[in-house]
Design brief:
Blueprint (H helix, E strand, L loop, with lengths): L2 E3 L11 E3 L1 H4 L7 E2 H15 L13 H9 L8 H5 L5 E2 L2 E3 L5 H4 L1 H15 L4 H11 L9 H6 L6 H18 L11 H22 L17 H19 L12 H9 L7 H12 L6 E5 L6 H7 L7 E5 L2 H16 L8 E6 L5 H10 L9 E2 L7 H4 L4 E5 L1 H4 L8 H8 L3 E4 L7 H16 L3 E6 L4 H12 L13 E6 L2 E6 L6 E8 L3 H13 L3 E5 L3 H9 L6 E4 L5 H15 L9 E5 L13 E4 L4 H8 L17 E5 L17 H13 L2 E4 L1 H10 L9 H28 L18 H6 L13 E6 L1 H5 L1 H8 L4 E3 L2 H9 L10 H4 L2 E4 L13 E4 L3 E4 L4
Parallel strand pairs: 6-12, 7-10, 7-11, 8-9, 8-10, 11-12, 15-20, 16-18, 16-19, 17-18, 19-20, 22-24
Antiparallel strand pairs: 1-5, 2-3, 4-5, 6-13, 13-14, 15-21, 22-23, 25-26
Helix pairs in contact: 2-3, 2-9, 2-10, 2-11, 3-9, 3-10, 6-7, 7-10, 9-11, 10-19, 12-13, 12-14, 13-14, 20-21, 20-28, 22-23, 26-28
């Protein structure tokens, strides 16, 4: 037996505890009692219902939903958990030692007790099991059914009476009557259970916070569960308001044209794409839909997508990188600010590994927002990756959403946070087959979660577009797409439509070759800069960018890549936008040397481009950073010019692209560019993408064709491997998914960091680090806030190994801004310590890693 009686009366439920006295600073040994805590969390859950509404019709009363969430800690009514307080008895009952696992893991015990209690009340086994597993998942994951069975314990009659009394008090408090249920439709059932897991977890976080779980409230307990629940409901609403969680109050726009104008601002007129989007919004049904926007760079895709979010619960802009998230953050903030007068202020989350409320607030202040009288601000409660997607409006990396469709802890919180929102995927062409497969699965889940999804790209292969549209609409015939770029396609269940529109500008772009040596590139870039041109040089590797930058002399120049500490990288990004943005100050010649950070979602305008060979869609993205806006050009640069390294050679140097891109894609792109030296845009944005990623047969030298044949074998094997890994990693489709897990769960932060086999991305291992000087170690706690803004990623294998093997400074794991990263120890001169490879942090070059050769 789990306990023994020294008296006849049942165990009083109010002597069972939920929170320890040391945590709650409460009087007496019991801390915060269990029953008030269950009712508190139920009250928070009820308050959350209008904030994140259920994406499908509720299968039971809202009172039952609140009660289920409240019963998340039902398993704390067990001898093993109660002993954790240091008690040896509750009431007149002795608590025995050596309790079985189920009684030690209160979340596991919740599943066992809730399942049995619902069964006794007449609910069938399948529904009791699914509901119990969902409620018991509030610490991050549902348990395998076998694990629950193995951990069952023998319950004495006294404990059984206590469980019944506790359960009944929760039902009385919430007003739940009858029995709960589940949707009969498989997709709806999956959506409801994901939503219930997220609701329960979020309610528990808030219900356990000091705003709700306050020991001084216990003096109000009168023994009336309903009265306590009503009071807790008021406390919960106040806690939600302080956290920034409130129902969406913005009304849908009167027309699509009005929505587009809000996205643009009063000073701008809609372009053809945006006009077409306005017409589309006037005719779209209210049900969730998928919109795919394919248009050239600079046509206003972002504003068109933002306009579609008005009237929804919120929006999330999913970007390929931290840099692109940062670049668009201020545009999103300005969009939210223009919605003044539509109810409560808008909080905006910056959701990526180097984001958070502090970073968001800093960027808001830079554009005059985030003040006490402003409409857009940063929410303190949404700190940390688990909470960031709970903010109704946000921008960040696509990884934050993808974690929701991996077997990761708290993945369901991500899906819960996204439900009912407009989710915008930018630069969707930028992902490999593995991450693309995860995106397709996430979009399938967003459909059942009641989202509107917008996918944007200038260079989307037809196969990817068709896969997305078919996944949303079902197996229906797609409209013909020949000669219809630029276009908007949209899908609803059982239907797909498409419309083309005119591009706002046409361009003739000449392609030329330039030797790939850094000396040749530097000499040509300097010559053009002396003629007054803005010269953009985009290379594929940081070391090559650093080497090239070193060779620039006597002309203004800027280096921009991802291997700077984040605060410095953001400052460089601001400088780049100030120099080359729409109203850029670089009126004389200037050379911008950059890596891939400059090829996406960065609104800069240069006169001429020098680029390393790359997949054709990325070359076109780079071309989109020149002649982007109407302005006076230096003599000789009136038309856009693109110079591709080694384009006149038989083969591109493998050193320029190795370990960065698929050689098959690079070689096919190289062959296409060799054969097409003049591009007529916008037609020649879509045509090369469909050719290179389609069935086009390249012509070229014997050496090129031989290299293509060899690269094809590796390409096919890699593609198959990525498809297989994506299938293994991602959740099942909603109509095939079960809350009973069939794979082990991983840490959600690890899924984004790249240390897992089944993370959000494949590729080389990487590690987030914080550069730490000796002076920082002398006052680590005092410097923690500053250091947290200096995160960077490293990918050198030997450097990663050294960092992971080094001991952590004392107290590192206790500092929130640093705990998720590792220290990169430097000496006073910036040299990396304890590493077999020579590396140093340079003020101008960023992190330099010496060549192993």
């Amino acid at each position: 037996m789990a306990s023994s009686s020294v008296g006849a009366e049942p165990i009083p439920v109010l002597v069972l505890w939920a929170k320890s006295a040391s945590v709650m600073s409460a009087e007496g040994p019991g801390g915060y009692p269990l029953l008030p805590h269950l009712l508190d969390v139920a009250a928070v859950a009820e308050a959350l219902l209008p904030v994140v509404p259920c994406p499908v019709p509720l299968p039971c009363s809202s009172a039952w939903v609140s009660a289920l969430a409240g019963l998340h800690d039902f398993g704390k009514a067990s001898p093993g958990f109660q002993r954790k307080l240091g008690l040896t008895a509750v009431g007149n009952y002795v608590l025995e030692a050596n309790q079985r696992e189920c009684q030690q893991r209160h979340d596991m015990c919740t599943v066992f007790l809730l399942r049995n209690t619902l069964k006794r009340r007449g609910l069938d086994h399948r529904r009791t099991n699914w509901l119990a597993l969902a409620v018991g998942a509030h610490h991050g994951q549902p348990f395998p059914e076998g694990q629950i069975t193995e951990a069952e314990w023998v319950i004495s009659p006294s404990w059984e009476q206590a469980h019944e009394a506790l359960f009944e008090e929760v039902l009385n408090g919430t007003g739940a009557e009858g029995l709960p249920s589940l949707p009969t439709d498989k997709k709806h059932r999956a959506a409801f259970l994901q939503w219930l897991m997220g609701l329960t977890t979020t309610a528990d976080w808030l219900g356990s916070s000091e705003g709700v779980c306050r020991s001084e409230r216990l003096s109000e307990w009168s023994g009336d569960s309903r009265l306590w629940f009503e009071r807790s409901r008021l406390v919960a609403e106040e806690a939600l308001l302080k956290a920034g969680l409130h129902p969406a109050v913005s009304s849908p726009p009167v027309s699509g044209a009005e929505a587009v104008q809000v996205a643009l601002g009063p000073a701008h007129r809609p372009r053809p794409l945006q006009q077409e989007m306005a017409s589309l919004m006037d005719s779209l049904p209210a049900e969730p839909c998928l919109i795919v926007i394919e248009a050239p760079m600079g046509e206003g895709k972002t504003e068109a997508a933002l306009s579609s979010s008005l009237g929804s619960r919120g929006l999330y802009l999913a970007m390929p990188t931290q840099a692109t998230s940062n670049a668009l953050f201020t545009r999103l903030a300005a969009f939210l600010e223009r919605q003044k007068g539509q109810g409560a202020s808008k909080l905006l989350a910056l959701a990526h590994g180097s984001g958070g409320p502090e970073a968001a607030n800093l960027r808001l202040r830079e554009i005059g927002l985030g003040t006490s009288d402003g409409h857009a601000g940063a929410g303190w409660w949404f700190r940390g990756s688990k909470r960031s997607l709970l903010c109704a409006d946000g921008i960040g990396t696509v990884d934050q959403g993808l974690i929701g469709v991996l077997s990761t802890r708290h993945g369901f919180v991500r899906l819960y946070g996204l439900s009912g929102r407009t989710v915008i995927f930018d630069e969707v062409h930028a992902y490999d087959t593995y991450t693309g497969g995860l995106i397709e699965r996430l979009i399938a889940w967003l459909q059942v979660l009641g989202c509107r999804v917008v996918v944007m790209s200038a260079t989307l292969p037809a196969s990817k577009r068709e896969a997305l549209l078919k996944a949303w609409s079902g197996s229906v015939a797609l409209p013909p797409q020949e000669n219809s770029y630029p276009r908007i396609s949209w899908a609803v269940p059982d239907a797909v439509h498409s419309v083309s529109f005119a591009a706002s500008r046409r361009q003739r772009v000449e392609l030329h070759s330039i030797p790939s040596s850094t000396q040749a590139v530097a000499q040509q870039a300097m010559a053009w800069a002396r003629e007054g041109a803005r010269v953009l040089v985009v290379v594929n590797k940081v070391a090559r960018a650093q080497e090239l930058y070193r060779q620039l002399e006597e002309v203004p120049c800027t280096l921009f890549h991802a291997r700077f500490p984040m605060d410095q990288r953001l400052e460089i990004e601001r400088r780049v936008l100030g120099l080359f943005g729409p109203d850029g100050s670089a009126t004389a010649g200037h050379v911008l040397v950059a890596t891939q950070v400059a090829e996406q979602s960065l609104d800069i305008d240069c006169d001429v481009l020098i680029t390393d060979p790359a997949p054709v869609d990325l070359v076109l993205q780079r071309e989109g950073r020149i002649h982007r806006h109407d302005r006076a050009r230096p003599e000789g640069f009136e038309q856009p010019l693109v110079y591709v390294a080694d384009l006149d050679e038989q083969l591109p140097s493998e050193e320029l692209t190795s370990f960065v891109y698929d050689q098959w894609d690079v070689l096919r792109s190289f062959a296409w560019l060799q054969a097409n030296r003049v591009l007529q845009l916008p037609e020649d944005i879509d045509r090369p993408v469909q050719d290179v990623y389609g069935s086009w047969e390249p012509q070229g030298s014997a050496a090129l064709l031989k290299a293509l044949a060899e690269a094809l074998k590796t390409h096919q094997a890699d593609q198959q491997a990525m498809e297989d890994l994506a299938r293994q990693a991602r959740l099942a489709m909603p109509d095939e998914w079960s809350v009973v897990p069939n794979a082990p769960f991983s840490n959600d932060d690890d899924a984004e960091s790249g240390v897992l086999r089944f993370g959000t991305r494949l590729g080389e291992d990487s590690q987030s680090v914080v550069p730490v000087y000796p002076a920082d170690l002398a006052d680590l706690q005092g410097r923690a806030t500053v250091l947290a803004q200096q995160v960077m990623r490293i990918s050198n294998k030997r450097l990663i190994q050294a960092v992971r093997q080094a001991p952590l400074p004392e107290g590192w794991r206790s500092l929130p801004g640093l705990a998720a990263h590792l220290p990169l120890r430097l000496d006073e001169a910036g040299r990396v310590l304890g590493c077999p490879v020579e590396a140093w942090l340079d003020a101008d070059l960023g992190l330099v890693v010496a060549s192993s050769g």
